[in-house]
Design a protein that fits this description.
Elements (H helix, E strand, L loop, with lengths): L2 E3 L2 E3 L23 H12 L16 H8 L8 E2 L11 E10 L13 E10 L8 E3 L3 H8 L9 E2 L2 E6 L10 E7 L10 H9 L3 E6 L6 E3 L5 E3 L10 H29 L9 H4 E11 L1 H11 L6 E5 L7 H4 L5 E5 L6 H6 L7 E6 L10 H12 L3 H8 L4 H21 L16 E2 L12
Helix pairs in contact: 4-12, 5-7
């Protein structure tokens, strides 16, 4: 399950790198950000946002020749836009710095305390007049846009649909909580089109930035911490990625403990009004893209109070592959064959289980690259073929609709007990969804 253009490949866990069948070996792929992979592809192919050709073949007139020698005035930056959520609730958002003083920073030994950022997305009490939360904070965005794929001079990163610090809607009582973990080298809002949609349907979604595993994390005091994991080699890849999953699970544990303390106290510094009163941590689920999906599975295997989990096209790591889970778990992959970790884990998923494949998708279809890159393609000079290599030939609107519907069905079933016929098997309304394991769903039916 991955993306390949020329010699560049993205693996299932490696959004900073690649993602694909585990048995092919991580060492056979160059690790880079997902955006970097496409940027390299554009460079290799010779397409890029460049000035118009000054070839003599373009015109023989003196006027045209003079014009060709005069650089065109720069275009103003293009504002990118996130798709509108489909639910009925207006959204609020708040960012929090968490510090786990029981751990030193595992990737940078000189840092005495593990710190990371989380962002909470929730139904707001009413449409608020405050500022919209950014997709990425200013300091993090400067680092992100320096990768070259969405450079600051060409693109303005999107605003979200949430108002910063808006009071939470309390009229409906407590709400289920869903944790989101990003892919390797990505960031907490990598799949915000999915996160915002869940929140607009009544869930509280907490997105985590795994510091030094994420491409960049900005803290409230303006510090920006960047990717600092060791370069992967054939000798260390399993150990380093296994460590990354363990670090992420510890981040999830700290997050749940912090939220639990806020619920017990009826609030916490920095939390918007009413938010602590609507968190129902007895109904907590988790999902993630790529290595974030592996994080969801590993957190459940570690015994954290997560009642259901979903993996969006991510290779699984650790003992969960061979020892499995007793709780509901869904594997939702791109349009390639299952990798060996999924094949190995499937017989050991003893609870409710599903394995779905989205026809016409690619690894990064499950991120915000799905709606953003088609907007940016013309300015990037990307061909339709390159775009399809990266996010698949399935139209992004349809891909996003299917993904949102699948996640709403999954979490509705396991956090609310709602019927989910979409997950029962192939259906004419969703011809893009394949069930690679047929109807052999395991001993516990939903």
């Amino acid at each position: 399950m991955g993306f390949e253009t020329g010699s560049m490949t993205t693996q299932r866990y490696g959004d900073h790198g690649t993602d694909g069948p585990e048995d092919r070996g991580l060492s056979r792929r160059r690790l880079m950000t997902g955006g970097g992979a496409l940027a390299v592809a554009l460079t290799v192919s010779g397409t890029a946002p460049a000035a118009a050709s000054t070839s003599a073949y373009t015109s023989t007139s003196a006027y045209a020749t003079a014009a060709a020698r005069t650089p065109a005035p720069p275009l103003p930056p293009q504002r990118l836009v996130l798709p509108v959520p489909t639910g009925r609730y207006p959204l609020g958002a708040v960012s929090l710095r968490l510090a786990d003083r029981s751990r030193r920073e595992p990737w940078v030994p000189s840092e005495p305390v593990r710190e990371f950022m989380v962002q909470i997305w929730y139904p707001a009490d009413r449409p608020a007049a405050g500022p919209r939360a950014p997709w990425m904070t200013a300091g993090a965005a400067r680092h992100f846009q320096s990768s070259g794929l969405l450079p600051a001079g060409s693109f303005l990163l999107p605003a979200t649909h949430a108002r910063e610090g808006a009071p939470a809607r309390t009229a409906d009582g407590r709400r289920p909580v869903i944790l989101y973990s990003h892919g390797h080298g990505q960031h907490r809002n990598s799949s915000l089109t999915l996160v915002e949609d869940l929140a607009s349907h009544g869930y509280v979604v907490v997105t985590l930035d795994h510091t030094h595993d994420a491409g960049q994390v900005e803290f409230p005091d303006g510090r920006v911490k960047t990717y600092a994991m060791p370069e992967l080699t054939p000798a260390n890849e399993q150990r380093v990625i296994g460590k990354a999953v363990d670090v992420r699970v510890a981040d999830v544990r700290c997050t749940l403990a912090t939220l639990g303390e806020a619920v017990r106290r009826g609030g916490a510094p920095g939390l918007p009004a009413g938010l602590a009163h609507v968190l129902d941590l007895r109904r907590t689920a988790a999902f993630g893209h790529s290595l974030g999906g592996a994080t969801a599975a590993a957190a459940m295997y570690a015994g954290l109070p997560v009642v259901a989990g979903a993996d969006l096209d991510g290779t699984l790591f650790g003992e969960v592959v061979t020892r499995g889970l007793d709780k509901p778990f869904m594997l939702f992959g791109a349009d390639t064959e299952d990798d060996t970790s999924w094949q190995s884990a499937w017989p050991h998923l003893r609870g409710w289980r599903r394995s779905l494949r989205l026809t016409g998708s690619r690894h990064f279809s499950f991120t915000d690259y799905e709606p953003l890159l088609p907007q940016a393609a013309a300015r990037l000079g990307a061909t339709p073929e390159q775009l399809a290599d990266f996010i698949g030939p399935l139209g992004w609107q349809r891909s996003l609709t299917v993904q949102r519907d699948v996640l709403l069905a999954f979490f509705g079933l396991h956090l609310h007990g709602r019927a989910a016929p979409l997950l029962d098997g192939p259906a004419p309304r969703y011809p893009e969804i394949l069930f690679p394991h047929g109807r052999a769903y395991g001993p516990v039916e939903g």
